[in-house]
Amino acid sequence: MLIKVPKASDCHESDVTPESIYLSRRNVLSVAVTGLAVSGLPRWAAADDVARYADVEPGKAPVWFSEKLSSVKWGAVVVKDEAITPFKDATHYNNFYEFGTDKGDPAANAGTLKTEPWSVVVDGEVGKPGRYALEDFMKPYQLEERIYRLRCVEAWSMVIPWIGFPLSALLKEVEPTSKARFIRFETLQDPKSMPGQRSGFALIDWPYIEGLRLDEAMSPLAILAVGMYGRVLPNQNGAPLRLVVPWKYGFKSIKSIVRISLVGEQPKTTWQSIAADEYGFYANVNPTVDHPRWTQARERRLPSGLFKPNVRDTQLFNGYSEEVASLYTGLDLRKNY
Ligand SMILES: Nc1nc2c(c(=O)[nH]1)N[C@H]1C(S)=C(S)[C@@H](COP(=O)(O)O)O[C@H]1N2
Ligand SMILES: [Mo]
To answer: Domain Oxidoreductase molybdopterin-binding spans what residues (predicted)?
Structure first.
């Protein structure tokens, strides 16, 4: 990752505002009455309910998404006692190098990304390979809201309410063969719509590639996201389909996926290819294993002011140890960073 000195324009000078201010729900009353509230969010909402986040533009959603929105399991996983990052920050402070390397570039440039029609290829070591139109690809899945911390390797973090479905559900659909040991993801390559792929940002050998071990991919926390903040994913956040693995540094959560392959060998990932000594395949969030050029012990929780930074301790596995630590028993996390 490039070293970036934060600019004043990168973030707001405000302290974190309680989640309740950003979040208003149609069913708040019913939640209070039934006592299902978790940090102001219900675990389950009525079937016709839609989460409403204040100050969020609904965005132009495809029909399949709007249809699924009415049956989303709202607040299926939540973060307790931490505010949801304002939508404005989550959509204007991004890493998506296909659209430029400045934090504001994806918001400024990703409008050119054409997300409809979109197709996804599933191939490699699977019983049911195929090429699907996104609306067909999505048919089997029930959407859930998953409110997760996102910790970038650059030491900033957010809390984002994603809408997606477990990656394990996809794996069940496509039937990995006994030879499948890893899953590999590929982002769209389209220099016409992606200025970062034309500008000769020579470091990256496009397309962007990421991967997981198969057992990591099966973790109930790993999701494929199609929405956030109660709406369809904005282009700059990886529309129309992206990975979210909340216990790993953000670069593992690959955006705008066009190909998912089950493979026998560990895939060569984009950031590993750029600097293998700085960015590993595992990239598990770990406060005790520093990046060679900066500490990973702490993070800036956005929004964070330049003069009043909102800094907090980074947690092992980004606070998801209980769910994922067992995946790594016997693995030297210092060597396998
Ligand atoms: N294709 C692609 N996916 C990507 C990136 C990228 O540059 N290209 N950046 C990654 C990094 S470094 C981070 S921190 C997250 C940021 O996701 P967000 O902008 O939705 O917060 O996306 C990840 N996925
Ligand atoms: Mo990142």
So the answer is: 114-271
Ligand nearest to the CA of 99: 1
User: CA-CA distance, 221 to 169, in Å (whole number)?
Assistant: 12
Q: What is the dihedral of CA 19, 23, 27, 30, to 10 degrees?
A: 20
List, in order, residues 6 or more apart from 288 with CB less than 8 Å away: 296, 297, 316
Taking the CA of residue 271 as reference, the ligand 1 atom at the shortest distance is 12
For residue 321, CA distances in Å to 237, 246, 324, 329 come to 26, 11, 5, 12
From the alpha carbon of 243, which atom of ligand 1 is closest? 24
Task: Tell me, yes or no, if the pTM score tops 0.70.
Answer: yes
Q: Is any atom of ligand 1 closer than 6 Å to the C-beta of 255?
A: yes
| pLDDT tens series, the chain, 337 aa | 443 333 433 434 333 333 443 444 433 333 333 333 344 444 344 444 577 798 898 899 999 999 999 999 999 999 999 999 999 999 999 999 999 999 999 999 999 999 999 999 999 999 999 999 999 999 999 999 999 999 999 999 999 999 999 999 999 999 999 999 999 999 999 999 999 999 766 689 999 999 999 999 999 999 999 999 999 999 999 999 999 999 999 999 999 999 999 999 999 999 999 999 999 999 999 999 999 999 999 999 999 988 888 999 999 999 999 999 999 999 999 999 9
CB of residue 64 inside a 6 A radius of ligand 1: no
Asked if the 19-327 domain carries CATH number 3.40.50.2000, the reply is no
CB distance 262 to 177 below 8 Å: yes
Strand 37-38 relative to strand 41-42, pairing? antiparallel
| Euclidean distance between the first and the last CA atom of the chain, given in angstroms as a whole number | 15
